[in-house]
Amino acid sequence: MTKTALITGATGGIGRAFTAELHRRGYQVIITGRSTEKLTELSQTVTGGAAQIVAADLATPEGIGTLVDVIRSNPLDILVNNAGFGTHGSFAELDLQRELEQATVNMTALLTATHQALRSMTARRTGAILNIASVAGFQPLPYMATYGASKAFVDKFSLAVGAEARTSGVLVTSVNPGPVDTQFFDVVGSDAVNIGRALSPEQVVASAMTAVDKRRSRVVVPRAFHAVEAITRVLPASLMARAASIVSGR
Ligand SMILES: NC(=O)c1ccc[n+]([C@@H]2O[C@H](COP(=O)([O-])OP(=O)(O)OC[C@H]3O[C@@H](n4cnc5c(N)ncnc54)[C@H](OP(=O)(O)O)[C@@H]3O)[C@@H](O)[C@H]2O)c1
């Protein structure tokens, strides 16, 4: 029987690579983003028109409702909660509406989709949920405060829910990439935290899919960021915040 995968943020760099890989693996893919035009191009170019398109703005309750309806009516084998964006600047000076939208896309939409998918997957005792976090969540991140905190939420939330789901046959994996070569930093409007050599989206997807194949609950890619995380565990969080601001405040 054909398996089904849904990818949010499919029109971006990492989402496009997930779409290509899951289509290559024989999944019926459902792709979401805000633009029907971009989704149509993606479906045509990457899946030969086979992908099912769902346009939804995940910063809105209506868009999240649309996503829930799609998950409810399509029993998923894989859900990739990938849609997300960041902002850069001093929190008090950033547009509050945009920060709230960021929190909604990065956390509320992911939480809601995970809830809906997990119920269905648990009942069928099969499935995997990949939640895209970030190394940006490893420490408090001044000047990207909402983004860093949202990704820390994704990581901790996914690990906790994954531990609950362990005996149900459902895998929940937290994927934590370092900088990736996508439009992400253009949307952020700053290169401040674009540190080190950027990964390709395909490298992120390869690591994430290896985790699915090997039933791993957490991915950090590249692995060198494990060392960064180890340092954040030793130093006081307040000191880490000040140290991080030297990089992120540029
Ligand atoms: N690039 C990096 O360095 C990096 C590192 C670690 C983690 N990540 C995470 O990886 C994920 C994918 O990012 P990317 O690097 O591929 O960036 P990207 O190319 O900018 O893609 C972002 C995706 O999110 C979607 N999106 C943004 N706002 C949305 C909204 N309101 N409603 C629905 N969809 C929305 C975009 O869709 P439309 O704009 O077409 O609607 C797009 O498909 C994000 O969660 C990001 O935080 C990225």
Describe the protein in words.
- The protein is 51% helix and 14% strand.
- The protein has 250 residues and is α/β, with parallel strands linked by helices.
- It has a seven-stranded parallel beta sheet, sandwiched between helices.
- Strand 5, helix 5 and strand 6 form a beta-alpha-beta unit.
- The chain is globular and about 50 Å long.
- NADP nicotinamide-adenine-dinucleotide phosphate binds next to helix 1 and helix 6.
Provide the descriptors you would attach to this structure in a database record.
250 residues; 9 helices; alpha/beta; single chain; binds NADP nicotinamide-adenine-dinucleotide phosphate; Rossmann fold; 7-stranded parallel β-sheet; 14% strand; 51% helix
Q: Mind telling me the CATH superfamily name?
A: NAD(P)-binding Rossmann-like Domain
Cα distance spanning the termini:
52 Å
Strand residues, percent? 5-15%
Tell me the overall shape: globular
Major sheet attributes = 7 strands, parallel
- Order the strands across the largest sheet as they lie in space: 3-2-1-4-5-6-7
Tally of separate domains: 1
SSE topology string: EHEHEHEHEHEHHEHH
CATH structural class: Alpha Beta
By DSSP, the count of extended strands is: 7
Oligomer: single chain
What structural class do you assign from the helix and strand content?
Answer: alpha/beta
